[in-house]
Amino acid sequence: MTSSRWTLLEAVAELANAPLTNIAERLREATLPYVGSSALVIFTEDCTGRPQKKAGAEGIISRVSIPELDQLRTRVTEGEVWHGEAAIAGEQRPVLALTSESNALLTLTEPALPEEPLERASTLRMLDYLWQLTARRIQEKVADAPPSYLLESRAASAERLRVTAELVDRHSTTLETLLAALRSSALDDATARKTVTDLAATSLVSLRTLSDRTTDLVEEPVAKAFERLREDLRPLMHFSGLDIQFIEPPVNGRALPGEVAHASRAIVRGLVLAIVEQPAVRRVRVQWDCDGVNLLINVRDDGLGELTSDSPNIARLNNRVTALDGRMNIEVMAGWGADVQVVLPLDPPSAPAGDIGGWGLAEREMEVLQLLAAGQRNRAISAKLHISENTVKFHVRNIFRKLGVGSRTEAIALAHSHGLRAPN
Q1: What is the pLDDT of residues 410-422, one digit of tens each?
Q2: Residues in Cβ contact with 134 at an 8 Å cutoff, skipping those fewer than 6 apart
Q3: CATH level 2 (architecture), domain 3-143
Q4: In CATH, which of 3.30.720.10, 3.30.565.10, 3.30.200.20, 3.40.50.300 is domain 222-345?
Q5: Which of 39, 249, 308, 343 has a 20 to 30 A CA-CA distance from 358?
């Protein structure tokens, strides 16, 4: 076997085993032998806490925005490679873009492709293969995400909603004040007033749209989430002959946070698979309800009542439930089957700052993290603590390592989720 084939197999193995936090880096390493690029960005709504996964030039990956990626995705046809100029990280750049069946988007900036047509076509086929493999792995990894990922993802989602809401409130007030002033009868330049009024109104609509878009990324309507569960279980019904009855949640029920939607589907899938392993099970009933505060899940079978809470499969599912501050209860009725109730809170718990002791941060690192949580940049932290910017960077790297995060946003989200704020 040639060395290039070994290289490809090693790249595929790396992608298959990469954690979600590193999957963009692994994909970029896999694609670089075929397509050079300055940066690689994955935009996927499967990961509500981190919809962007990025690797490459810091000046690009630190500035690329969701509205830019959303706009680019409208120009890409599924199953085809899009190549052209697009606004990425605040500038028009050459871009290569592909989508997947899950509507995820892959973007390569400043791509370097072979000139020879046959070699170019072969390169694009390889790129598409590696991308589709990665997109499927992201879906699978999110569906089976460990409790630690669910906690971090929920914290990041909540923090992004908070920041976006603050931006919307601030800019909405500014624009509404501007509109009131421009509509004043004291201004006699009617043409100028109309032009600026129209511009400000358009900006206001755009800002509100951005807020709605951010909310869509981190929430899923409960009816839509349940329909996706039904689709997930359809193959099992087809091949096993199991009769699964679905009792749907109220259509107008509260939307589910993304982490709850993903986890609840995974929990039900795991419960159904555990139930199928029991003898004499012919029928399973799956019911979701929403009381405005919790997602209420009920799974019941008509077997012999042999499902046990201490089995490894059930224990793993219970870990997922616990990670979201939920609870699971199993009632077994000999000869009549098992009844499983799961309650998942829709809002994250308010964790006290005292829970941060396990992070192992030194006193100076804690001070830096508190200032990070207050939105301070390295230069401001340097001035506040009377240390150099290089020393701040050193502390930030240590904080990332100890918290197990890969960016300032994740560190800030985790700090806020534990009630950590800047010192007075």
Answers
A1: 787 777 767 665 5
A2: 15, 23, 27, 42, 106
A3: 2-Layer Sandwich (3.30)
A4: 3.30.565.10
A5: 343
